[in-house]
Amino acid sequence: MTVFARVPALAPFQIRSFRFQWPADLLASWAFEMEGVILGWFVLVSTGSVTALAVFGSLQFLGTLVSPFFGMAGDRIGNRNVLCMMRITYVCVALCLMLLFMTGLATAVSVFALAAIMGLVRPSDITLRNLLVGETMTAGLLMRAMSVSRMTADSARVVGALSGAALMAALGSGVAYIVICGVYLVSFVLSLNVGLRRVRMVGETAVPLSPIRALREGFAYVWSTPDVRAATLLAFLMNFAAYPLVSALLAHVAKDIYGLDQTGLGWLIASFATGALLGSIVLSMHGARIRAARAMIAGALIWFTLNLVFSWIETPRWGEALLIVIGVAQSFCMVPMAVILLRTADPAFRGRVMGVRMLAVYGLPLGLLLSGPSIEHVGFAVTGSLFSLIGITFTLLIASHWRAHLWHPQAAANRH
C-alpha cells in the first residue's frame, strides 16, 4: 500500500474496488477491440461496401438510445449489479459468434444481427465504469483514477487490435472467438468484486421514480447546469465529427487508401491507441494540476485540427505517426470531460447525468452513417476535412457561449 501512496499514478489502487475494477475493465476492453477488428474486417470483405462497414460500426452504438436507463438502473439496484449483467451478456453473444465462425455459418446478416444485440448493451459499459469510479473515489483521486481507468480502453486498442488481427490471420475467426469468450468470462468474474453496496443518496426520493419521470429529471438537470450541459454538447460533437475518422472508417483507410491488410489495420488502430495511452499516463501523473474544462476545450480544437491533416495523408507511416498525436489530444479532451461530469454533478443525479451523457455517443453512429455515403461520393479527404471544420466551428461556439463556466480559472469545472 505504501507503493500505491508514493506513486501518483498508482494512488487509485489504494481503493480495493479499483484493484478489481481496473483489470475487469481492461479485459472487457481488450475483447471489445479484438471483436471490432475481426467483425469489421469480415463485414468489409464479405460485402465490399464502405457503407455497410459504416452501418456495422453504427450498430455497435445502438444502445446509446437507452443508455440513460442503464444509469437509472445503477442508481436503483446498484452499478455493480448492472455491470455484471451486461458482461455476462457479452459472454453469451461471443459464444454465438464463436459457433457461427467455427461451423462456417457466419454471414454478414448474422453478424449484423448479433452486433445489434451487443450494440444495445455495450455503449453503456463506459457509463457504469465511470459511475463506479465516481462512487468509490475521493475527490482528490478522481482525475488520476479516471486517467488510469481510461488506460484500459487505450491499452486495449493497442493489444486488442494487434492480437485480434494476429489471431484471425494465424488461426481463423473461430479460434480467435474462443479466446474472446475466455477474456469476457474472466472480466465478469472480476466485476463481481467491484463497487460499493447500494446506499441511498442525500436528496433521493424514498419512493422510486418511474423511468420516464427519472429520465425527464435527468435531462432537466443537465440542461439547467451550464458546465454539465456544455460538456454533454461537446461530447456529442466529438462523437459526431471526430471519432468516425479514427474508428470504424480506419478499415477503409487501411484497405482502400493505404493498400494494407487486416494486420495493417491493426497497426493503425494501435497507433491511435498508443497516443491515447500516452495522454492518459500523463494525466494520471499530473492531472491533479490540470484545469479540466480548459484542457477539454484545447484538446478538442487540437484533435479536430489533426484530423483535418490526417484526412489528406496517403502514406501509411505518416498516417500512423499522426494517429499517435491524435490519440494524445483525444485523452486531453475526453478524460477531463468525464471528470467535469462526475465532479460537478449532484451525487443524487450522477447516474442519470452519465446516462444522458452516453446519449451523446449517438453522434458516432450518426456521423458514420453520414460519412460512409459521403466518402463513396467525394472521397475520404474531402469528407474528413468537412467534418473537422464543422467540429472546430462548433467547439469555438461552445467555448464562447459558456466562457465563464469553461475558461475562467475559478469556475467549478476548472477547480483542482
How would you describe this structure to a colleague?
The protein is an all-alpha fold and 416 residues long. The protein has a single domain, classed as Growth Hormone, Chain: A (Up-down Bundle), CATH 1.20.1250.20. The protein is 77% helix and 0% strand. It has 19 helices and no strands. It has helices at residues 2-6, 16-47, 50-59, 67-77, 79-103, 108-121, 125-136, 142-171, 173-191, 211-224, 226-242, 250-257, 262-286, 292-310, 316-344, 350-359, 363-378, 380-401, 403-406.
Order of helices and strands: HHHHHHHHHHHHHHHHHHH
Distance from N terminus to C terminus (CA atoms, Å) equals: 24 Å
Please state the average pLDDT score.
82
Total strand count, please? 0
**Total domain units:** 1
How does CATH name the architecture?
A: Up-down Bundle
What's the shape? globular
Total of helices = 19
Radius of gyration based on Cα positions: 20 Å
Largest sheet: none
CATH class: Mainly Alpha
Q: Any idea what the CATH superfamily is called?
A: MFS general substrate transporter like domains
Q: Work out the strand percent.
A: under 5%
Q: What are the segments in which pLDDT stays under 50 over at least 5 consecutive residues?
A: 198-207
Helix content: over 70%
CATH topology: Growth Hormone, Chain: A
